[in-house]
Amino acid sequence: MIDFHTHTFFSDGELIASELVRRAGILGYRAIGLADHVDASNLDFVVPRLAKVAHELNRFQDTFVIPGGEITHAPLDQIPELISAARKLGAVFVVVHGESPVEPVMPGTNQAAIEAGADILAHPGFITPDQARLAAENGVFLEITARSGHSLTNGHVARIAFEVGARLVINTDTHSPENLITREMAGKVLMGAGLTESQTATVLANNQDLLNVLKRRAGA
User: Fold this and answer.
1) How far apart are CA 129 and CA 160, in angstroms?
2) Is 108 left (phi over 0), alpha (psi -120 to 50) or beta?
């Protein structure tokens, strides 16, 4: 399993990074992205610490740890600034918390995140075809999520993405240890979103492709 969207106790996750990575490794994770919730209030605190712990853990164990951040409920005009700041502080990748149907995310967040060049737009809800086309043009991956609630629109996101050629990744949005999943379960989530076996294989391959990009970006 390759999962780019997990949370530690630096935001609203339950585990310290070492335990999260250890539990992921037991489930067969080859790589895990630490993407705690950030905005202007905590970005300069959280991201450098995730970068530090990722560096240290990668010295000693096999599951590759990637430091990032999830920009969450931020004002639309601030999103480009926060993405840039996160990268300067050591985030190898940046997620933006998309317009989930179960949270009052500001309308226009999907568009702002795509225009600003986030790496992943998380649980983007009822994303429009035009937004998905722009994501494809800008190299922004759209997320299929295993997270309860956010997953309600997985089918819509999957259908739109394949119609317009946007690339999908499968993530867990882990907050608790029981949220981690196996690669087999990831396949079931994708099939449950209406994807064929071939499309499911494509999405799982996208996770590998993005990992390769982020490894190069991290100098690994």
Assistant:
1) 6
2) left
Torsion of CA 103, 106, 112, 114, to 10 degrees: 20
> Confidence class of residue 220 from pLDDT cuts 50, 70 and 90?
confident
Q: pLDDT of 152-195, one tens digit each?
A: 999 999 999 999 999 999 999 999 999 999 999 999 999 999 99
Residue 46 sits in which domain range? Answer: 2-218
Cβ burial, residue 219 (10 Å; 0-12/13-18/19+): exposed
Are 173 and 5 in contact by the 8 Å Cβ rule? The answer is: yes
Q: What's the CATH code of the domain at 43?
A: 3.20.20.140
**pLDDT per residue as tens digits for the range 146-162:** 999 999 999 999 999 99
Q: What is the pLDDT of residue 19?
A: 98
**What's the token pair of residue 171?**
């993530």
Total tally of structural domains belonging to the chain: 1
Give yes or no for a contact between 200 and 187, defined as CB atoms under 8 angstroms apart.
Answer: yes
Kind of pairing between the strands at 120-122 and 37-38: unpaired
Parallel, antiparallel or unpaired: strands 64-71 and 93-97? parallel
Whether the model pTM is above 0.90 = yes
Annotate 84-140 with DSSP letters as a single string.
HHHHHTT-SEEEEE---TTS-PPTTHHHHHHHHT-SEEES--S--HHHHHHHHHHTP
Dmax (CA) for the chain in angstroms is 44
